[in-house]
Specification:
With 307 residues, the protein is of the alpha/beta class. The protein contains 12 helices and 17 strands. Helix 11 crosses helix 12. It starts with 5 loop residues before the first strand and ends with a strand.
């Protein structure tokens, strides 16, 4: 199906973001490209990042295989989620490290040299403190990590694991400003994509109102229509037309009404993500995370890579 929305993805900016993270932290950088690189296209992203990062993170095995990470880059991938396969060969072939959170999985995947996911507060597919030592021993594990969002999560990881592993990491994008959380590596996700994404469409129609309009009968003196709706992830909020913020007046399945000024014309560019309408700003309106904004709005968009 043709998309009338385009995600303009600046690969150079993403590379610069990764290089800056490496310079600041001076530890290994594991680029998070799960969920098709936040709906930006994992295949192109891993190729763009392969010479500026040390490895990649996905959620499950299939994501790494589908993106061809090992074939495209020759670098390791860490699966952050529960094991999708209990066959160690599935991981060996793709240079993938599975994550385990209990002794049983550690034993089954021992020859794949798994990493241990430790529970420091998330309480989700992670090993609790009193089972860490037994799980480490069962799987011959030398790497441990946590899904941390606060400095105390990183501190707890270090306390629980102590010196039992040679490789430790806790810092995703939320902890990149916390040097105490950097350890052996950092795992930036959203931080890689900051300032690199523009999401645009155009005004399919513009007209002066002759009365209540749309399904809801909204009232506005002048409005435009864009070919993006709730089936594309659009939610109430704002867009930008000709450098000015405009309200979204009503959202249908595949189109939406937006405010229009007297100077706005059919064909004018409409920006849904830019330097003003950042995923962080939109997330405040949606009462959610910037990650959800990016994945949701870019999922059905046509991709225009700038390199």
């Amino acid at each position: 199906m043709r998309s009338f929305v385009t995600a303009h993805i600046d690969l150079n900016r993403i590379r610069e973001n990764a290089a800056d993270i490496r310079r600041r932290t001076r530890v290994e950088v594991l680029a998070v490209v799960k969920s098709d690189a936040y709906s930006l296209g994992a295949e192109r992203l891993v190729e763009a990042l392969c010479d500026v990062v040390d490895g990649f993170c996905v959620f499950v095995l299939k994501e790494a295989v589908d993106a061809g990470i090992y074939r495209r880059t020759g670098k390791k991938t860490l699966c952050l989620g529960p094991p999708e396969s209990m066959n160690p060969d599935d991981y060996h072939r793709q240079l993938i490290t599975p994550a385990v959170s209990d002794r049983e999985h550690a034993i089954l995947l021992k020859s794949a040299h798994p990493a241990l996911c430790v529970d420091t507060g998330m309480q989700r597919f992670a090993c609790v403190a009193d089972q860490v030592e037994a799980t480490l021993n069962a799987g011959d594990i030398h790497e441990a990590f946590t899904h941390g969002t606060k400095p105390e999560h990183a501190t707890k990881l270090k306390e629980v694991v102590s010196n039992r592993v040679s490789r430790l990491h806790a810092a995703g994008s939320a902890l990149l400003d916390e040097p105490s959380a950097w350890f052996s590596a950092v795992r930036p996700g959203m931080a890689l994509y900051e300032g690199a994404i523009r999401l645009t469409t155009s005004l399919a129609e513009v007209r002066d109102a002759t009365g209540p309009a749309g399904y809801s009968g909204f009232v506005a003196p002048r409005f435009g229509v864009i070919l993006m709706g709730y089936s594309h992830g659009l939610r109430p909020g704002s867009v930008m037309i000709n450098g000015e913020l405009r309200r979204i007046l009503e959202i249908g399945m595949q189109s939406a009404f937006v405010e229009a000024a007297t100077s706005d014309r059919t064909g004018d560019r409409v920006e849904l993500i830019n330097d003003t309408l950042t995923p962080q700003a939109i997330a405040q309106d949606w009462k959610t995370s910037p990650q959800e904004v990016l994945v949701t709005l870019c999922k059905t968009a046509r991709r225009d890579y700038i390199d």
